[in-house]
């Protein structure tokens, strides 16, 4: 599916799924599909151009976006959102949401993230402001139990949690919904290590993405192209 736009009616809930997607894998797709089906709205997968709080990705932004495009080609209501690729500078989520809000003060906006990302939320730029800008949809993730959070995050989960799809549409931001899809163990870190080691990695992501990685020789040295050039999109 391509980026929705043009004259299509505005959806009543805008759901963004940010990530490095280095590379996109079946675990990402599983939670995106689960969120789409639970919330009954399209999911906009938003690759970070320059992701904060981590070493530079193994593949360039354009390679990561090209792989994501391939992964989404056959997916219903999952689309790529390029705003963090086009903005330049560090891809701070709070800045993305503030820019989005400028034209849509009343829209219901939600951010999909894994439980490990939520556990690290206090390190994000202006993290408390995120709650006034968007709802959070937290996907459970193997190895990241939500019962083991820092006290301020546990308090936010307690105060804002328990939302359902209808609750996210009633107010613009500030609620938390937990997505309890079947746990999927994939991680991009493990995938990159398997590719570098010549292990069994192809079944962990869509075939078209595996073909792209082979074709461009990504991640073979444990780091991909180091952020250099990419095939045209
Ligand atoms: N298997 C999974 N289950 C649940 N959430 C996931 C899973 N994989 C990734 N996520 C979530 O998707 C978002 C984007 O993830 P990211 O692109 O960093 O993938 P990753 O597999 O965590 O990569 P890396 O290992 O390089 O950190 C994050 O919020 C992360 O928590
Ligand atoms: O804004 C921040 O400070 C911030 C810090 C860490 C992560 N994020 C965002 O969280 C999403 C998942 O991050 P990652 O590193 O797990 O791919 C991605 O969209 C990042 O831009 C954002």
Topology:
Blueprint: E1 14-19, H1 26-39, E2 43-47, H2 61-72, E3 78-80, H3 83-87, H4 93-103, E4 109-114, H5 115-119, H6 130-133, E5 135-139, H7 151-160, H8 165-170, E6 176-179, H9 188-197, H10 207-216
Parallel strand pairs: 1-2, 1-4, 2-3, 4-5, 5-6
Helix pairs in contact: 2-10
The structure holds adenosine-5'-triphosphate and nicotinate mononucleotide.
Shape assignment = globular
CATH homologous superfamily heading:
HUPs
Oligomeric organization of the protein chains: single chain
Computed Rg: 17 Å
What descriptors fit this protein?
233 residues; alpha/beta; Rossmann fold; 6-stranded parallel beta sheet; 6 strands; disordered N terminus; disordered C terminus; binds adenosine-5'-triphosphate; binds nicotinate mononucleotide; Probable nicotinate-nucleotide adenylyltransferase; EC 2.7.7.18; transferase; NAD; pyridine nucleotide biosynthesis
How would you describe what is shown here?
Keywords: ATP-binding, NAD, Nucleotide-binding, Nucleotidyltransferase, Pyridine nucleotide biosynthesis, Transferase. This protein is α/β, with parallel strands linked by helices and 233 residues long. The chain has ten helices and six strands. The chain has helices at residues 26-39, 61-72, 83-87, 93-103, 115-119, 130-133, 151-160, 165-170, 188-197, 207-216; strands spanning 14-19, 43-47, 78-80, 109-114, 135-139, 176-179. Strand 2, helix 2 and strand 3 form a beta-alpha-beta unit. Helix 2 packs antiparallel against helix 10 (207-216). The protein starts with 13 loop residues before the first strand and ends in a 17-residue tail after the last helix. The relative contact order is 0.20. The model is unreliable at 1-10 and 226-233 (pLDDT under 50). Residues 18-20, 48, 51-54, 91-94, 117, 124-125 line the site of nicotinate mononucleotide.
């Amino acid at each position: 599916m391509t980026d929705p736009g043009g004259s299509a009616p505005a959806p009543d809930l805008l759901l963004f799924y940010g990530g490095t997607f280095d590379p996109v894998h079946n675990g990402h797709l599983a939670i995106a599909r689960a969120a789409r089906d639970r919330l009954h709205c399209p999911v906009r997968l938003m690759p970070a151009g320059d992701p904060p709080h981590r070493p530079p990705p193994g593949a360039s932004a354009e390679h990561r976006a090209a792989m994501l495009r391939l992964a989404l080609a056959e997916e219903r209501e999952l689309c790529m959102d390029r705003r963090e690729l086009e903005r330049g500078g560090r891809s701070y989520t709070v800045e993305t949401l503030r820019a989005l809000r400028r034209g849509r003060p009343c829209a219901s906006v939600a951010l999909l993230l894994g439980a490990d990302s939520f556990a690290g939320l206090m390190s994000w730029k202006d993290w408390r402001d995120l709650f006034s800008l968007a709802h959070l949809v937290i996907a459970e993730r193997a190895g990241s139990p939500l019962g083991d959070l820092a006290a301020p995050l546990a308090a936010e989960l307690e105060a804002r949690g328990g939302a359902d799809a209808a609750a996210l549409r009633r107010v613009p931001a500030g609620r938390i919904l937990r997505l309890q899809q079947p746990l999927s163990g994939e991680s991009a870190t493990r995938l990159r290590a398997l590719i570098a080691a010549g292990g069994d990695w192809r079944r962990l992501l869509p075939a078209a993405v595996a073909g792209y990685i082979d074709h461009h020789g990504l991640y073979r040295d444990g780091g991909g192209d180091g952020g250099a050039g990419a095939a045209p999109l």
